[in-house]
């Protein structure tokens, strides 16, 4: 998926994305000295965390704006621009790590992405990842859908949110042994007084592309009113995240 990021706003208001990724690091076995590809590294915070846990990371991302921030903040690491469905490395890595990235890749392109990850790993290398799973942000998407359909517009978000039953066979077909898979809710507090509005503006761009600005604003405001009872608690907006977290080993 091709999306233009406001990298500065991402750093300021959406730091929870990489903060939650710290738990994912615990799935990497025997981390000391491992060479790791941070797939979809963004602004590099988790690349640095990988290093602090004794690994030798390099970061890849499709966004030049995010990479610019990563290089400025962490000049000691190697960062490069690349497409998760079309990349190669000069030598295999021990781990491919990815947090909050893979749902941006269209479902029909995942076999190609898994093929590239498999090729990037040494035999018995670890693929550790987390992304949006089945039911992710369902309340938000349904509230937006109502506003779109009310005005005669189709609403079709371009994210890929699979279940465990759907995704683990894809891993096995790509040559991996799945050793851990979990689907879980993560009700997530958003930053700022306009947390959910800012979240929608940051992450739900594609459905709004051909809709006039005034109608965009009306749709979002109606969605916020609809979601207030369920997602606004104790003075804070939240997002109804559901995550799929997996660890798979490349078959020797």
Question: What does this protein look like?
Answer:
- The protein is of the alpha/beta class.
- It has a domain of 175 residues: Rossmann fold (3-Layer(aba) Sandwich), CATH 3.40.50.150.
- Strands 1, 2, 3, 4, 5, 6, 7 and 8 form an 8-stranded mixed beta sheet that branches.
- A hairpin with a 2-residue loop joins strand 7 and strand 8.
- Helix 6 crosses helix 9.
- It is globular, with a radius of gyration of 18 Å.
- The chain starts with 6 loop residues before the first helix and ends with a strand.
- About 4% of the residues have low confidence.
The name of the CATH superfamily of the domain at 7-137 and 158-190 and 240-250 reads: Vaccinia Virus protein VP39
Using only CA atoms, what is the Rg?
18 Å
Span between termini: 31 Å
| Architecture per CATH nomenclature, i.e. the level-2 architecture of the domain at 7-137 and 158-190 and 240-250 | 3-Layer(aba) Sandwich
Our count of helices gives 9
Structural class comes to alpha/beta
Envelope shape: globular
Contiguous low-pLDDT stretches (5 residues minimum) are 7-17
Q: TL;DR of this structure?
A:
This protein is of the alpha/beta class and 252 residues long. It has a domain at 7-137 and 158-190 and 240-250: Vaccinia Virus protein VP39 (Rossmann fold, 3-Layer(aba) Sandwich), CATH 3.40.50. The chain has helices at residues 7-13, 16-24, 45-52, 64-73, 110-120, 138-150, 164-173, 195-203, 213-231, and strands at residues 35-39, 56-61, 78-81, 93-99, 121-132, 176-189, 232-233, 236-250.
